[in-house]
Specification:
Layout (H helix, E strand, L loop, with lengths): L1 E8 L3 E2 L5 E3 L2 H18 L10 E6 L5 E7 L10
Antiparallel strand pairs: 1-2, 1-3, 1-4, 4-5
Length: about 80
């Protein structure tokens, strides 16, 4: 089991000091998508406030393994 750390940056940075033990990077990717989904479903209005947010996943040495970037925009028809 490896320890993965999930950081969120959305104008502020939230640091994961404990990390999560997971079997491999594929499990970490699944966890990241599920975690992001929970964040979006818990606070859906924040997706539309114009702020880009990034979920960055690192190893114990703070090496970025991958990241998910979220930014919602309205289409031209909704900008009136």
């Amino acid at each position: 089991m490896l320890r993965y750390f999930f950081y969120i940056r959305d104008g502020q940075t939230f640091v994961d000091l404990q990390g999560t033990e997971l079997a491999d990077i594929h499990a970490a990717k699944r966890e990241a998508v599920q975690f992001a989904g929970h964040l979006l479903s818990d606070q859906p209005d924040t997706a539309w406030d114009g702020t880009k947010w990034v979920l960055r996943v690192t190893d114990a040495n703070d090496l970025t393994l991958f990241s998910l970037t979220f930014f919602a925009t309205d289409g031209a028809v909704n900008c009136h």
